[in-house]
Design goal:
Elements: E1 12-14, E2 17-19, E3 24-28, E4 35-40, H1 44-63, H2 66-84, H3 88-95, H4 99-107, H5 110-117, E5 126-133, E6 142-152, E7 155-159, H6 165-178, E8 182-186, H7 193-203, E9 211-213, H8 219-227, E10 233-237, H9 240-250, E11 256-260, E12 266-269, H10 275-282, H11 284-287, E13 299-303, H12 307-318, H13 339-354, E14 358-361, E15 376-379, H14 386-389, E16 396-402, H15 405-413, E17 420-424, H16 428-435, E18 442-445, E19 463-464, H17 469-475, E20 477-485
Parallel strand pairs: 7-8, 7-10, 8-9, 10-11, 12-13, 12-17, 13-16, 15-16, 17-18
Antiparallel strand pairs: 1-2, 3-4, 5-6, 6-20, 11-19, 14-15
Helix pairs in contact: 1-8, 2-5, 2-7, 3-4, 5-6, 10-12
The structure holds nicotinamide-adenine-dinucleotide (NAD).
Nicotinamide-adenine-dinucleotide binds next to helix 8 and helix 9.
């Protein structure tokens, strides 16, 4: 395996120290099924030590000004830009991303941008308008003014999913650190190695205990962070099912929660939309990290008058979706993360077929090693099908038809998810009108490109809270109001 040191001892980072573990587990390359490395297996005790270390480091770190903390973040962005250039092979191997995605989206791009964005200080305070307070048994007559300030939430455990390991972690820790919190990073068990590298770089820059990294294959270590009274906030990105468990157990210690959960992105096409452009967007479900992305437009809701043409155009486009060795430059569709996940997606496709969906393309397992699923298109679907209701997190598109904008909105909202939706219409005014009726935290019109600094998060089972941009800083803070007589 190119440029990956098989003998490297991967360690945890706790209180500024790199800590060995007595046990390790294998990280498997989903593309080749070979072993990428042996990840450290943290114990619950080591996890709680990380929480205690983050708590100890908190007072000094939060006492710095935001400007001072941002200086550390800027230094981290510079150091990571240099160091991460060496991590492409590692990230490619542990995530199974195609080379194109590994180079441009996993290691560069959003990952470094998140640090750069939060390396500039924001003004967070807001003055209160003075109000007249009449004389009472409580206090004499006065004019009361004040200020609303932001305090850090405290110790934040950042629990992340496997799809974009570095980007997911960077999106949490950069705003959390800028806001004055200390963090424990708990990456997904499937691909934590580059995150450990990230931790090593940050540990050489930030004061001891400000950034801690805990890795393990068991859900128990994430659960231990949720239960720990040393942890004030859980910033979680992952499935709605695990998110719901965390909300329930986090309630015992009144955790502050940021929940970025699953999605089943609706993509509405009106009869006057640009079909080619919409199809180009939908094809990203196949060609962008094999559909392992929460915002993917997987649920196509197409006007009946353009339904046949849309399905035919999607079919023709799927023929360009080369499935192959993820390390080869020309490959567009790589594997999904694990054998278990491949089996889950396959049974999900089978449930659609059993429920009467028509397989237009895909559905079968490609004849190659690794955890591959052919780009799959299921037409003739209806909202009662499991394959329409649930998230596949794989290269699977379902298509339904609608008979007008109102019906399209009804179908789009007939989902317990509400993360990211898309509207393709003949003009932006019509698309905007439809967007306002969607139960979805984000809506993109005639594009699948997101606004990177817009508030990001979901309605319904897709989450609670928002991050990115200024909302990222707000998410990792407590609101404090201070008042005095003017
Ligand atoms: P997952 O929910 O299985 O795991 C996410 C993380 O939670 C992992 O680190 C895991 O170890 C940890 N975990 C598992 N059980 C836990 C418990 N009981 N307590 C605490 N932590 C626990 O998700 P996944 O399979 O890694 O990722 C796929 C899911 O993530 C999809 O549903 C996808 O939509 C979602 N996702 C959402 C966003 C978003 O921004 N909304 C982004 C990426 C992925």
């Amino acid at each position: 395996m190119a440029d990956i040191d098989q003998d490297y001892e991967w360690k945890l980072i706790v209180g500024g120290e790199e800590i060995s573990t007595s046990a390790h587990y294998d990280i498997i390359d989903p593309n080749t099924t070979g072993i990428v490395g042996k990840a450290p297996e943290a114990t619950v005790q080591q996890t709680l030590q990380a929480a205690a270390a983050a708590k100890e480091a908190l007072p000094k770190w939060k006492a710095l000004s935001m400007d001072e903390r941002c200086t550390y973040i800027a230094k981290a962005a510079d150091a990571l830009e240099v160091a991460s250039a060496e991590w492409v092979d590692l990230v490619q191997a542990e995530t199974g991303a195609t080379m194109r995605i590994a180079k441009t989206m996993q290691v560069a791009g959003a990952f470094i941008d998140r640090f750069r964005y939060y390396s500039k200080s924001f003004e967070m305070n807001q003055p209160l308008t003075p109000v007249y307070s009449a004389a009472s048994a409580l206090a004499p007559e006065s004019l009361i003014t004040g200020n609303v300030i932001r305090q850090p939430a405290g110790v934040v455990a950042c629990i992340t999913p496997y799809n974009f390991p570095l980007v997911n972690v960077a999106g949490k820790i950069a705003p959390a650190l800028a806001m004055g919190n200390t963090v424990i990073i708990k990456p997904a068990p499937q691909d934590p190695l580059a995150v450990i590298k990230l931790g090593e770089v940050l540990n050489s820059i930030f004061p001891p205990g400000v950034v801690n990294v805990i890795v393990g294959s068991s859900p128990d270590i994430g659960a231990a962070l949720v239960d720990s009274s040393d942890v004030n906030m859980i910033s979680f990105t992952g499935s709605s099912m695990v998110g719901a468990k965390i909300m329930e157990s986090g309630g015992k210690t009144m955790k502050r929660l940021l929940m970025e959960l699953g999605g089943k992105g609706a993509l509405i096409m009106t009869e006057d939309c640009d079909i080619q452009s919409a199809v180009g967007g939908i094809a990203s479900v196949w060609g962008f990290h094999s559909g392992q992305i929460c915002t993917a437009p997987t649920r196509v809701i197409c006007h009946k008058s353009i339904y046949e043409e849309t399905v035919a155009t999607l079919k023709a486009t799927s023929e360009f979706m080369t499935v192959g060795d993820a390390r080869e430059e020309g490959t567009l569709v790589g594997p999904v993360i694990t054998e278990t996940h491949r089996d889950r997606v396959e049974s999900f496709i089978q449930s659609g077929i059993d429920d009467g969906a028509e397989v237009i393309v895909g559905g079968e397992r490609p004849d190659r090693d690794g955890y591959f699923i052919a780009p799959t298109l299921l037409a003739g679907c209806n909202p009662d099908m499991h394959v329409v209701k649930e998230e596949a997190f794989g290269p699977v598109v379902v298509v339904m038809s609608h008979d007008g904008d109102e019906h399209a909105v009804e179908l789009a909202n007939d989902s317990h998810y509400g993360l990211f939706s898309y509207v393709y219409a003949g003009n932006t005014t019509r698309a905007y009108d439809i967007a306002q009726k969607l139960e979805s935290g984000n809506v993109a019109l005639n594009t699948i490109a997101p606004h990177m600094y817009a508030p990001f998060g979901g309605f319904k089972m897709s989450g609670v809270g928002r991050d990115r941009g200024r909302w990222g800083l707000e998410a990792y803070s407590e609101v404090q109001a201070i008042n005095w007589p003017s």
